[in-house]
Amino acid sequence: MVFTAFVLILALSGVAPTNAEGGDYSYNMTAANGPPNWANLNIAANACGGNQQSPIAFTTQGCETFSDKYVLSSGNCGLDDLTFFAVPNGVKATYDGACTPNRMTIPNVDGIYQAQQFHIHIKSEHTFDGARLAFELHVVHGLVEGSGNSIVPDGVGGGSKQFAVFGFAMQAGGSSNSAFQVLLDEFILGDTCDEGARRKLEEELSSSAEASITKKSNLRKAQSTFNIYDLMSGTDFYHYGGGLTTPPCTEAVWFNIAKDPVIISNAQATSLTNVILSYAEGSSCTPATIADPSQGTARPVQALNGREVQRICGATETTVISLTRAIAKCLLNPLRLGCLTILAGL
Fold first, then answer.
1. Using an 8 Å Cβ cutoff, are 253 and 165 in contact?
2. Cα–Cα distance list, 88 to 11, 72, 85, 296, 330 (Å)
3. What tens digit of pLDDT does each residue of 134-157 get?
4. CA–CA distance, 229 with 321 (Å, rounded to integer)
5. What does the alpha-carbon distance between residue 259 and residue 311 come to, in Å, rounded to a whole number?
6. Residue (of 191, 273, 183, 270) closest to 219 by Cα position
7. For 277, which of 6, 93, 136, 270 could close a Cys bridge (C-beta 3.0–4.6 Å)?
8. What is the pLDDT of residues 303-312, one digit of tens each?
9. Is a pLDDT exceeding 80 seen at residue 9?
10. What number of other Cβ atoms are within 10 A of residue 60's Cβ?
């Protein structure tokens, strides 16, 4: 209810924000720059009308098993190595380059991918058996070693992929999630809008207590390292080749989306929604969210166009491993995929 009321007030006020994150586009389904028209936007290298687009719809399917498994390395970054902020289409955190971020290898893909940033959309971009959940978090990785090609020819989405996404949906209704609360506090602190203008804006938009955003203490002192992979629930991923979910929709991404959602509380969901929907620019707090009343900040699902979706199962403790375990494996077999980069960093 807070979501719909907030965006409705923006629409009635005539606010038509543009997106500083990637050009003039929006999630308003009826706007000239909304998702149905992204393929027609005058954006450099626009691929939004391509055949390997994202997100897509997932349906429950049987497991694929491979001898090669996911390797998720924790790196050594702490919260102090991340910058948290709100953007017109969600919230985002970037790594500053002074640490070693998380890294991942993907079954049957020749490459090591290193985390660059993570962000959260209102509404899950992918659907799960027809359901769109409350949020979706994407950790965007860039290729740092290898070709980015699928080792075994298949139909999941051919061609070299320069990016990989580790992601998961989030659903409200459980108890408070302490691991997620660390992120939520940082995103609230990353709201740089002038405090006085923020309060005035909140009063104008809603008298509900749910719309209040309270600055919380920074918990960084209790976090020597921060591993974004630790938030994942379950051990199974949906894997396919696709494109960026915002313009220019470049078809250069291996998606790896956890089958099971992360559960957060209703209060946490409300706080996150408020941070995203009350996004405002500058000291005057000019409303600038590009959320749509029904879509949130999630692109509608796209056609598979013949692509295969794999459900890769059993990423257990022995396969989703820390950097320490990865080093141990590489010492036993230095020629293992990705080990040259891991050992070179010692």
1. yes
2. 15, 30, 10, 11, 42
3. 999 999 999 999 999 987 656 666
4. 10
5. 8
6. 183
7. 6
8. 999 999 999 9
9. no
10. 8
